[in-house]
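#struct-queue
[09:14] JT: dropping the first one here, sequence first, then the structure tokens:
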Amino acid sequence: MKRPPARGDLSAAVVAALEQPPGTLRLPDSRTAAASDPYGDDLHLALALCYELHYRGFDAVPDTWEWDPELLRFRAALEHAFLDALRADVPERTDVDALLDDLLVEPADGDGVSHFLRDQGEYRHLREYAAQRSLYHLKEADPHLWVVPRLWGQAKAGMMAVEYDEFGAGRAERVHSRLFGDLMDDLGLDRTYGRYLGVCCRQMLAVNNLMSLFGLHRVHRGALIGHFAWVEITSSPGSRRLAQALERLEAGPAAVHFYAEHVEADAVHEQVVRHQVVKGLLREEPALAPDVAFGIGATELLEDRLGEHLLSAWQAGESSLFAAL
């Protein structure tokens, strides 16, 4: 993928570094990262650039950058700033079952993003939403696979059962990332991997960065499972509303199919994640309950902030994007 324009000194430093051989440039120190906005555009674009080296990388950037010590030092400073802010903003909890129970309850008068898109959203809103979500959906489930070697027993078996579905159950044409690419085709978007990194809002960058942060660190395996549980448990009702929105606006069969597929699949995944993955993990490592709860809380916090940003922009007749499509 191509490197996007920088949004400040932190992301500019990463862009400049990646234009050189590893070890050529000195990146900013930890004090610079600590002084920046932990939820801001600059920090999260810089973090996204660092993380992307662990996925498909960038055009003309050597693969050896992935484990460059200087870049890892800088990335750690960015992560610490982000995590410190999250830990300050997410209430400490240990009651994982109660948190999961809460996720199963939807208010009768819900007014979130999927409700807006279903009831009054315009075609342009759907395109913006899909472009932003493509950051994750074009590599759907990839960040979660990093946790698999760190699990064992029932948790590992349950996790792989869900991931097998995410990757098409052995059929390339049913891999969820490919299905989302088909959705993008129907909406007239460019399905090229990473194409819209440069236009996504900071709230979307933070949501996307969270799962990479959790996935790449063994110490955050509990938080990654909490994040995964939040995603799977909340997915089915929202996916149904998004499918209805796409049908109402006649977005095309592939677009409708992506979310219709998730209505059924994630209803099953929710049970597997809760009763096999989460319970299996906590049976083996009960001390991870606060980490699982933190993963749930951090995901909810960032998703809520993303939803608030999208609705605020759209209801004001504005774009939710950092830059135009």
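[09:21] JT: and here's the second one, same format:
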Amino acid sequence: MKTIELIATSPMGLEAIVARELRDLGYEHVTVDNGRVTFRGTPADISRANLWLRTADRVLVKMGEFDALTFDELFEGTKALDWPDWIPGDAEFPVEGRSHKSQLSSVPACQGIVKKAVVEKMKQRYNTEWFPEDGARYVIEVSLLKDRATLTLDTTGPGLHKRGYRKLVTEAPLKETMAAAIIMISRWRPHRPLYDPFCGSGTFPVEAAMIGWNIAPGLRRTFNSELWPIIGEQAWEQAREEAYDLVKDDIPLEIGGSDIDPKAIEVAEASAKKAGFAKELKFHTLPVSKVKLDSDYGCIVTNPPYGERLGDDREAEKTVRSLGFTASVLSTWSVFALSPARSFEHYYGKPADKKRKLFNGRIECNLYQYLGPLPPLPKQDESP
């Protein structure tokens, strides 16, 4: 089967994490760029990538790339691509677009030109003047950057953060993909405790449990490309069977969270139940100042509420102080806190060992990392 070029789109700052995921899945020729990671695979690999990627936004097929300073160049470049190899005659194929630092700055006009060019190419293959567009969905995207056009097909549909376990949402939720990335940046492993004292809808604990049991994050949802003939039902069935076979649900987990808002805890418990972790994850209605953790060598992974969410900067500062105090007595624990507050370290009580710039949606944040000692290695069996 011929190889194709695929793109895993990524939030800014997480490209290296997405690239690491792809390499761990066995893909080679991985290239990192701003907001995207390119790799090579077969049409069957579209199913594996969608099921397994925890930190990417979506998976795209790269149809082509060319210079386009005029609408004629955009039309001819688009028409030259092999759209009928992918898109059946009855398919729905809307066009989305964006343009940055390019001569062709009108996105609606670019979308219209691309749509016309694809239709003209498909007319040649299917010998028809009209397409019903009542079949499977193939979203085409034209992206113009510095007069360079990239044409892609979106294989995912709703973004990869839509895992399928979170039906109810509390205020200002953290995306599941970002939560998974932060857990992967941390030094947490399934044999260590993990706790979120501002758990909200429970995203960090649920994502950690999915990582701990090696559950593919896309197992509970569907994707646009499941209906694409070029991939086929068998490839999707095989990918799902492989994912189910790789689940390690016999690993004991010590994961939990708390929140001062009882409604948030209701949502967190509902999310845990939907994800299959009703018994494994423990949640409590509790302010951070009352949190007591008895285990050693754990990780606090959290997104503390800040001024915009609390509606009061002073309350946010008090919250960060309480987090710092709670963590100060946990000498073997590590803390990973995502916050946009520039004064976070001041109110926490000490400078972070590491900081990493990340974007929670459009909000620029830092991941403040306070690194405790790693747990001791297990003793070797000395018996003869």
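[09:30] RK: nice, looked through the second one.
[09:31] RK: Residues 107-126 form the longest helix (20 residues).
[09:31] JT: good to know. The mean pLDDT is 94.
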